[in-house]
Write a structure and sequence with these properties.
The protein is an alpha+beta fold. It contains eight helices and seven strands, in the order H-H-H-H-H-H-E-H-E-E-E-E-E-E-H. The chain has a domain of 121 residues: MucB/RseB, C-terminal domain (Phosphorylase Kinase, domain 1, 2-Layer Sandwich), CATH 3.30.200.
Amino acid sequence: MSHEPDTVDEAELHAYIDGRLDPARHPAVLAYLRAHPDEAQRCADYQAINQGLHDLFDAILDEPLPARLTFHSRSQREWRPWLRVAAIGGWLTLGGVLGWTIHGYTGNRALADATLVQQAMIAHAVYVPEVRHPVEVAASQEQHLTTWLTKRMGTDIHIPNLGDDGYELLGGRLLPAESGPAAQFMYQDAHGRRLTLFLRRNAQHSGDTAFRFAQAGDIRGFYWVDRDLGYALIGDVDKETLARVAHTVYRDLNGPGP
């Protein structure tokens, strides 16, 4: 007697695509995909894109730089962030939109959210390695920073306090985005680990404030939209830590999280 395959959630589909699925769940996921050929094709397409991106970028990120790039003043460490930017841009441009469909939403909003997290991750990769100039305006001028960004972005800007999570504000900067000015705030913990909070005006908001997760290499991000602003918290930290801090950001801005 046949029976309906076990229900498979989105997290398990992503784990299957990425090769991280619990072996005990493989039979259930394979049965689900056999019963849902559209989902099976979508997963297969996403796996092919993942492999193609690995083929394109793994060698760039893992191998030493050519001598012509390290012979003069820039060290390999100084060039590494730009290679990460290339990998992030490639992963999110080529593979991102297909991935968002597995999360269950498509169309213009998916494209808008994809550009939000792409811009946030690229800005993170560019500015986090900076030693002398990680921010444009330091935390010692927080009130000036808030007033300046509020004026430039045309909406009230509030800088979250992440002290209870062990992160102190370093400062922030104004950035360009496709929809106009954007802002980035940078935080650092006692071990020198940094997080960035990226925000920009958002024209595609539909009222959904759900957190969404994206990852490119070792850079992870939680992003969401609230009223007229899109937010993305980015870091080279584990997913659980990033999720906890993202909820702190939301509570600081709005009260209890979604």
